[in-house]
Every structure is written in structure tokens, then in C-alpha cells.
Specification:
The complex is a heterodimer of chains A (118) and B (114). Chain A has 118 residues and is an all-beta fold. Helix content of chain A is 0%, strand content 57%. The chains are: A mainly beta (118), B mainly beta (114).
Chain lengths: 118, 114
């Protein structure tokens, strides 16, 4: 069974700092990995999606990397701002050898709650 | 207007009552999902549907049922609500085209069972 772990569970940093959020998964047979942002009491917004064949994706101040063989992904946030304060979740889409076209649901980590202090 | 709309957004109900959460989407996606989110447990999949005639149980389907009334509508029912079903419920949609498709979430429905 795929398990996704995010460390740390919570993180507080001063404004302007660069930071890294970590995500690990137990089964490297994945189609892709996604990073989401969730504001308190709100839905999830997709930030970046990395295909299993890719090493990284960038969007603005965000950079996500993927090392599928080691079961790890990182989300790098440059020059953090108070508006970045939210919970960040990663999720993987499983790949099944005997059903390679099966589009399986995402498996989520529990998230990292980020606070950026002004 | 939101691409994925959930109703109600907040509901307090009593133990034993039947409650339905509704979800509609305007993205034209064929795949729809219901998740619940609990503090410390992350998001867990309840049910998912890959098209109108397809319904699949997720990780925690006991105590829940779903109905895919149309491609754009997917409702979640608690036939006899219990307090440990108090949670934040999310509906989500995605496209079946390829495996690199993004998933879109609704704003969530807060359900409290007293």
C-alpha cells in the first residue's frame, strides 16, 4: 500500500527566507506527483505536477523536484512571503504494472503547515 | 463561478439523520471523487467515479454511499450519520485524458454530527 509522508508537519520561518518542504513515498511505481496548497477552511489548489519521467517543475518562486527511485520529492519556495502561509500537501498517482492505463486516484500526505512571519 | 461547487458548505446534523452532500462541476471532466479531511489524518478517499456508470469504493467507504446522477454531478450520502463522521468533505474532479491531468477541488463542506 502506498504511503506518503511529509516532514516537517509544521514550519515557521521569517519573511524572505528560502525553504524546502519534503515529501516521501513508499512505492516508486507512480505516474506523477503533485504539490497542492490549502488555505485554512478552503479547498486544495494544484501548484505543480511532475510526471514520473521528469526531475523537476518550476512555477514562479516554486520549484518541485522528484527522485522517483528514492521515493522523494521536495518543494522549494524562494524568498518566502506572508502570503505563502498555508498547508502544503503532496500526492502521488499510483501505477499498476498489470493495469498500466488505470488512472488511479491520488494518495495524499498529511501536509506541512507553513507560517511565514513578517 | 467556481469550477467545482459543493453544497451545503456547512451543516450541523444529529446522530442518526440522513445527510447528503452535493457536488457539481463545470469543467466537463468525467472523473469525480469524494475525500474527507481530518486533523492529523490528511485526505482520505471515500468513493470515486470514472464515468457515469462507474462507482468505486475508496479507502474509507463504510457508512457512506454515492450517486453519480450525471457527468457533472456526484453526491455523497451518510445514511445514518455518526459523530466520527464529523469532518471536512471535499469533492474533486479530473480529466481522463492521459495520466498527467490535474485534479480540481471544491471549497469543501464542513459537516458536524452531534
Amino acid at each position: 500500500k502506498q504511503e506518503v509522508t511529509q516532514i516537517p508537519a509544521a514550519l515557521s520561518v521569517p519573511e524572505g527566507e528560502n525553504l524546502v518542504l519534503n515529501c516521501s513515498f513508499t512505492d516508486s511505481a507512480i505516474y506523477n506527483l503533485q504539490w497542492f496548497r490549502q488555505d485554512p477552511g478552503k479547498g486544495l489548489t494544484s501548484l505543480l505536477l511532475i510526471q514520473s519521467s521528469q526531475r523537476e517543475q518550476t512555477s514562479g518562486r516554486l520549484n518541485a523536484s522528484l527522485d522517483k527511485s528514492s521515493g522523494r520529492s521536495t518543494l522549494y519556495i524562494a524568498a518566502s512571503q506572508p502570503g505563502d502561509s498555508a498547508t502544503y500537501l503532496c500526492a502521488v498517482r499510483q501505477y499498476f504494472t498489470f493495469f498500466p492505463l488505470l488512472n488511479t486516484p491520488l494518495v495524499f500526505g498529511k501536509g506541512t503547515r507553513l507560517s511565514v512571519i513578517a | 463561478d467556481a469550477d467545482v461547487t459543493q453544497t451545503p458548505r456547512n451543516r450541523i446534523t444529529k446522530t442518526g439523520k440522513r445527510i447528503m452532500l452535493e457536488c457539481s462541476q463545470t469543467k466537463g471532466h468525467d472523473r469525480m471523487y469524494w475525500y474527507r479531511q481530518d486533523p492529523g489524518l490528511g485526505l482520505r478517499l471515500i468513493y470515486y467515479s470514472f464515468d457515469v456508470k462507474d462507482i468505486n469504493k475508496g479507502e474509507i467507504s463504510d457508512g457512506y454511499s454515492v450517486s453519480r446522477q450525471a457527468q457533472a454531478k456526484f453526491s455523497l450520502s451518510l445514511e445514518s450519520a455518526i459523530p466520527n463522521q464529523t469532518a471536512l468533505y471535499f469533492c474533486a474532479t479530473s480529466d481522463s485524458q492521459g495520466t498527467g491531468n490535474t485534479i480540481y477541488f471544491g471549497e469543501g463542506s464542513w459537516l458536524t454530527v452531534v
